[in-house]
Amino acid sequence: MTPYARGYGAELLARKRLLEAGWVVTRRYASKGTYDLMALRDDRLPALVQVKRTQRATGNPAALLTPGERLDLVAEASKAGAEAVVARYVAGAAGHAGGWAWVALESAALGDTRPWTP
Questions:
Q1: pLDDT digit string, tens, across residues 65-76
Q2: What are the beta bridge partners of residue 38?
Q3: Can you tell me the distance from the alpha carbon of 66 to that of 45, in angstroms, rounded to the nearest whole number?
Q4: Tens-digit pLDDT profile for residues 21-78
Q5: Could you give the number of structural domains in the chain?
Q6: Residue 38 to residue 26: CA distance in whole angstroms
Q7: Torsion of CA 100, 109, 114, 27, to 10 degrees
Q8: SS3 8
Q9: Which domain holds residue 83?
Q10: Concatenated DSSP letters for 50-105?
Q11: Nearest CA to 36 among 23, 46, 24, 48?
Q12: Among 11, 1, 5, 110, which residue's Cα sits nearest to residue 51?
């Protein structure tokens, strides 16, 4: 499976998770921009979500973005009145379920995050 296919699969899983939580979700075509998904819900701030897939469940999900990517995501979310969110999908080994970690970026600084729940 190509890296693109793995990333696309994680984006679809994130979209499904958000839809199940009552969000309206749009996937960005080809996901080559600052964010992969835009999520809207009437009782929450909009969210611009960058989805990452990895094999390791340790560390801050925001660390999967470069400092420039974090800066761009925070800036674009700020312009839109939205939250900047990083969703990390940890792929499960054969026969084991994967898992999610979601954080909102308060700024582009790596440690300036808080847990975020869809």
A1: 999 999 999 999
A2: 26, 48
A3: 24
A4: 999 999 987 667 899 999 999 999 999 999 998 877 677 899 999 999 999 999 999 9
A5: 1
A6: 5
A7: -50
A8: helix
A9: 3-115
A10: EEEEES---S-GGGGS-HHHHHHHHHHHHHHT-EEEEEEEEPPPTTS--EEEEEEE
A11: 48
A12: 11
Sheet holding 99-105, edge to edge: 24-27, 37-40, 47-54, 83-90, 99-105, 113-115
Q: Which two tokens stand for residue 60?
A: 């801050």
Q: What does the alpha-carbon distance between residue 14 and residue 86 come to, in Å, rounded to a whole number?
A: 11
DSSP category for residue 114: E
Amino acid 58: pLDDT:
72
* Sole residue written with tokens 């793995």: 6
Closest CA to 116 of 79, 88, 74, 76: 88
- CA dist 64 and 53 (Å) reads 9
Residue 7: how many CB atoms within 10 A of its CB? 16
**Tokens representing residue 99 in the block:** 């898992």
- The structure tokens 């969210």 sit at 47
CATH of the domain at 94: 3.40.1350.10
